[in-house]
Structures are given as C-alpha cells and as structure tokens.
C-alpha cells in the first residue's frame, strides 16, 4: 500500500468513526465497543488491506497525548486524597493479576515455562487508561470511584509494562533475580516521576514566556511526547513521566494560562483525544486480521487454545474481584482500631470497581512486541485480543446497567452543588468590594454608579440562590433561556449585516467570538 493509499484509507476510517459514533449513541452502546466491533467487521471483509501495527510506534503516537490529557484534567485534590487507594489498585491489583494469570497459564499449558506464563500475566494485567476514560464519561459515579478508577488507569500501565519487561527478559535469558527486579522497579518508577517533574517545570517556564495561545498548545503536545520519549530513552517509566508532567500542567494552568488559551486548549485536546481514542479502537479491531493470518492453517492449534484462553480470561477477571474484596476485608479489620483512617467498605462500589477493568492498547502493543521465537506467542496474541474484546464489549456494555441495578449514584453531587453556591457568593462579594473601591471618588461621589448597581444586584441574587436553590432554579433557567434567545437574535443581526456587506469579515469574527463566549457561559449555567 502506497503512502497516498494509506492516507486515503485513514480518511475512510474517519468516516467510519463518524458513522460508528452516531450508531453507538442511538443504540446506547459504549463508543469503544462500537469502534472495536466496527474495526473487527472491517478486518473480516474481503479486500480489506492488512495493517501491520508497530507496537513501539503505537505506544509513542497514542499513549503520550492520551495520558497527558487524562492527567491534565484530573481532579487534583481527589487524586491526592485517594492516592493510597489508587496505588493499591495500580500496583497491588496489577501484581496480583500477573501472579494469578501466570499460575493459571501454567496449569492450563504445563509445557509453558514459568517466565513465559508471567509474561502473559503482565500483558493482560493492566486495565487501560483509554478504555477507562471512555467508560467513565457515560456514568454518573461517586467522585471517589471515578477518582480511583481514573487514577489507577494513569499509573497501572507503568506497573504492567515494567513487569512485562522483567518477565520477558527472564523468558529469553532464563535468569531472574527478585531483589534486582524490585530495585529496578523502584528505580524506573522514581526516575519516571523525576523526569516528569523536570520537564514539567521546564515546560511551565517556557509556557509563561510564550503568551501566544497557538504556541502554548503546541508546546503542551511537545511536552507530552518529550516526557514519554525522553524517559523511555533513559530507561525509566515514560508513562509516569508523562502523567507527572500532565499533572503539573493541569495544576498550574489556572494561574499560568490566559482564559483564551484555556478555552482553546480544552477544545483542541477534546477533539484530539476523541480522534486518537476512536482510531485506536478501530485499529485494535482491524488487528484481528493480522492475528488470524498468523494462525492460518492452525485450526487444531486454535482449538487447543480455546480452553487455556477461557481459563486465563476467567482468572484475569476473578483475580480483580479477589484483590478488591480482600483489601476491603483488611480495611474492615483495620477500621476496628483506626476508625477515622479507614472508611467503611461499600459492596456496590467494590463490585463496580471490580467490573471496570477494561483492557486496551497497552495489552495489544505488549503482545505484538513479543519475539517470534518466544514459546507460547500465539497463545499470548490470542489472549491479548480476547481480553480486549471480552472486557470492552462485555464489561463496557454491562457496566452502566450494573451501576443502575446497584443504585450507585453520585452522593457527592449535593455537597459539590453547595460548595459551588458558596464559592459564587464569595466571588460576588470579592467583585463587589473591588468595584466599590474603584468607583468611590475622593469627594464621595461614585465614578461607576451603574456598574456598582450591577454588582450589588449580582451579589443579592447569588445569595438568594445559594440559600434556596430549588425555588430560584426555575427563574435561573428562564433567565438564561432569555439570554440565549437574545444571543441568537444578535447573531442573526450580525450575519444579516455581513451578508449585506455592511461589516468586514474581521468585525464578524470578533463579534461572533464575543457572542460565542456569552453563549458558552449561558449554556454552562443551564
């Protein structure tokens, strides 16, 4: 396939993505499931070109921006508050799943060396950040669960990839030193965080001096790639480096980015993440052709792989339940002595978190990077693809009904709304104090009487709304609906003036941008 043909095929995939996204919304399916099914369907069509995925290229192209975006928009306080639970999931669950799957693989296929079995365990152990984020967007889960699952997805790839590297090295050389592996794991993790901190501070130093929104957004993309590639070249965790850089940018964006830059950056990253996620899941589905091609003519082998694959996938799913319920039991015991430090375990929350372990790009890329001569490579490829299909399709589709059946809702919503109302009151008070100081003249008269009246009215309305939101909410809705109607009238007038040649293109763009910001603010309040 020529480069032009590849580009044309990529454009065709974008068209397929639009159709599948629309179909997923109509059928209430998770978009990731629709994309994988669509890619799988394309792979099975006669005449579909076979795409050979370079696992290293997939990791470098897709992981850095996706990890950067997830870290950038992470709720920092929730992440820090739940860091202990996140680490227990990201490290503990991944290690336990690797061990359990390795033992299951050995029991299912006794001829496989132990190192190969644990390599297979490391491949399927880490849930995927992309799949987790795609699933969380559709669910109204309690903030703690969302923070734990998204935090786990940010950090567990590092654990899984490090375990994969050590297990694969042991499988190829026959040598494994547990103490050396633990030391190397700590070095790789700490080194990745250190690289992320250095590049984060360096990037912020540069961004503060760029000032132009286009250059700043471009710099954030480069920082994502530089963090991952730089850490990887230094043989430390590129995942942790990228996540650390993203957390630092997200924490400092409120002070170091202008309002225009933040709005443009959020729009840019939202579209970029959508395209990368969509293309990635389509490519996962298309990779089925390559897997089938490798197993062509080995129907007996495939038949003999069905039982081992089923056993491995069952172990992979069950081990997550075992770990989470086990940690809950430990917390329940510890709570007897330290009730303030350990919250009461919630059965519905644990079930949802245990059922949220979707696999994705890291699992596929790790399996594709296995050497051709490695024993059990066909089993690893089939297990990786089956793990992605089963978890994204089965768990991804059933997760929302499960949440509804368990009646698990966001209990923090009322508290968050109350905090928001109180914050708006403080904001209105601060603005009024500033306007009063700016308006008062030495002779006692007011320089900005109308502006002062406007901000006093805003404070009064904000206080009334905060005290009894249910009564005032209908009035607020009616208010912003009227504002939106006025904005649409203004937009129609501007367009009519433009079409009659009464205003310049530059004037149209400036006025339209101002109306767009007003519309965004009104729609946000609605």
UniProtKB/TrEMBL annotation:
What would be an example GO MF term here? potassium:proton antiporter activity
Keywords from the UniProt entry: Antiport, Cell inner membrane, Cell membrane, Ion transport, Membrane, Sodium, Sodium transport, Transmembrane, Transmembrane helix, Transport
Instruction: Provide an example Pfam family for this protein.
Output: Na_H_Exchanger
| Intracellular or extracellular location(s) | Cell inner membrane; Cell membrane
InterPro entries of this UniProt entry? Cation/H_exchanger_CPA1, Cation/H_exchanger_CPA1_bac, Cation/H_exchanger_TM
> Gene3D superfamilies recorded for this chain?
6.10.140.1330
List the GO cellular component terms: plasma membrane
Membrane topology, from the record: Multi-pass membrane protein
Q: Which GO terms describe its biological process?
A: regulation of intracellular pH; sodium ion import across plasma membrane
**Chain segments annotated as transmembrane:** 57-74, 86-105, 182-207, 237-255, 267-286, 306-326, 347-367, 379-399
Which intervals hold domain Cation/H+ exchanger transmembrane?
Answer: 14-404
Q: What role does it play?
A: Na(+)/H(+) antiporter that extrudes sodium in exchange for external protons.
- Give the family per the record: Belongs to the monovalent cation:proton antiporter 1 (CPA1) transporter (TC 2.A.36) family.
Q: What name has this protein been given in UniProt? A: Na+/H+ antiporter
Write down the species: Gluconacetobacter tumulicola
């Amino acid at each position: 396939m020529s480069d032009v043909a590849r580009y044309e095929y990529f454009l065709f995939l974008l068209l397929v993505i639009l159709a599948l996204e629309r179909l997923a919304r109509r059928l209430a399916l998770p978009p990731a499931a629709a994309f994988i099914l669509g890619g799988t369907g394309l792979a099975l069509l006669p005449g579909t070109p076979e795409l050979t995925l370079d696992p290293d290229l997939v990791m470098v192209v897709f992981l850095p921006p996706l990890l950067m975006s997830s870290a950038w928009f992470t709720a920092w306080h929730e992440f820090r508050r739940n860091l202990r639970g996140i680490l227990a999931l990201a490290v503990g669950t991944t290690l336990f799943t690797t061990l359990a799957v390795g033992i299951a693989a050995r029991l299912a296929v006794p001829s496989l060396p132990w190192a190969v079995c644990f390599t297979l365990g490391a491949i399927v152990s880490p849930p995927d950040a992309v799949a987790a984020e795609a699933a969380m967007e559709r669910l109204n889960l309690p903030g703690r669960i969302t923070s734990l699952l998204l935090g786990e997805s940010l950090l567990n790839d590092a654990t899984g990839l490090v375990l994969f590297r050590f297990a694969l090295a042991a499988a190829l050389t026959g040598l494994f030193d547990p103490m050396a592996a633990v030391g190397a794991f700590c070095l790789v993790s700490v080194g990745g965080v250190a690289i992320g901190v250095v590049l984060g501070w360096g990037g912020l130093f540069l961004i503060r001096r760029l000032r132009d929104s286009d250059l700043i957004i471009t710099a954030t993309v480069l920082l994502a790639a530089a963090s991952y590639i730089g850490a990887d070249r230094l043989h430390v965790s590129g995942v942790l480096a990228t996540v650390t850089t993203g957390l630092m940018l997200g924490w400092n964006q409120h002070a170091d980015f202008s309002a225009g830059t933040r709005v443009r950056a959020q729009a840019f990253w939202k579209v970029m993440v959508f395209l990368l996620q969509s293309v990635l899941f389509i490519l996962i589905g298309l990779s089925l052709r390559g897997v089938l091609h490798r197993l062509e003519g080995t129907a007996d082998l495939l038949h003999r792989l069905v039982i081992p694959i089923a056993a491995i996938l069952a172990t992979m799913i069950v081990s997550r339940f075992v770990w989470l319920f086990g940690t809950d039991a430990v917390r329940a015991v510890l709570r007897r002595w330290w009730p303030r430090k350990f919250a009461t375990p919630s059965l519905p929350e644990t079930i949802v978190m245990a059922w949220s372990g979707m696999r994705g790009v890291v699992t596929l890329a790790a399996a594709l990077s296995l050497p051709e001569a490695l024993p059990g490579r066909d089993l690893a490829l089939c297990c990786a693809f089956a793990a992605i299909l089963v978890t994204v399709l089965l768990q991804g589709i059933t997760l929302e009904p499960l949440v509804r059946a368990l009646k698990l809702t966001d209990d923090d919503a009322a508290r968050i709304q109350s905090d928001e109302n109180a914050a708006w009151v403080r904001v209105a008070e601060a603005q009024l104090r500033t306007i009063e100081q700016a308006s008062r003249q030495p002779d006692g008269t007011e320089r900005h009487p109308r502006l002062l009246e406007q901000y006093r009215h805003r404070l009064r309305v904000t206080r009334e709304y905060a005290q009894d939101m249910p009564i005032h909410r209908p009035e607020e809705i009616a208010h912003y609906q009227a504002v939106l109607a006025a904005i649409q009238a203004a937009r129609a007038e501007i367009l009519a003036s433009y079409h009659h040649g009464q205003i310049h293109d530059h004037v149209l763009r400036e006025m339209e941008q101002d109306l767009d910001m007003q519309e965004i603010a009104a729609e946000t309040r609605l």
